[in-house]
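ingest -> validate -> predict -> emit
validate: passed (alphabet ok, no gaps, 192 aa)
predict: started
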Amino acid sequence: MIPNIFELVTTKRPGIFFIGSPNVGKRTIISRLLSVDFEDVFDSSRDLLAYGWTIDTKYYTADVSLWMAHLHDGFSVEALPVFDRLSALVMVFDINDLSSLDTLKEWVSRTDIQTFDILLCIGNKVDLLSGHSAHVGYRRRLQKLEESLGNTTSELDYGISETEGSSLLGDGESSWQIKNSCLEWCSQHNIE
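emit:
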């Protein structure tokens, strides 16, 4: 069972805060961490979403809260009611839309992110980049699923071509420059 926002605000759970432009995949990442489908419970009109999560590894167990907000003009993480309990900042951008990375960079320039113990930046949606091995693997998985369902006459072109396209993580010179720029920015701000 996922605790509601009131329960999370009133408990002393350490927090993990997810931030990024709308539609970069923050909710998908959280739903996979929690093994819960949020399609039915997501209310896009809310500014702040919160979920409880028990991290259970072979070394430790910890109850934490996951917080998520869409990055927009004037957003201040310091104004959140749980700011003093946020330990980790997870910044998410869409690797297919580099303006979402630029938006994160702008926000970081106005925010003291060094108050967080853990800083992560995730370039999401790499599986949608033609020519990237994750895209090829994803398309092959879709193709096998179709075949297992008995659909051998699918009209989908699964895009299985390891040589097509260029991307942020591709081999092109501009892609290499973009990747290095992203890595340099993360290194400058101690972001993993």
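The longest strand covers residues 61-70.
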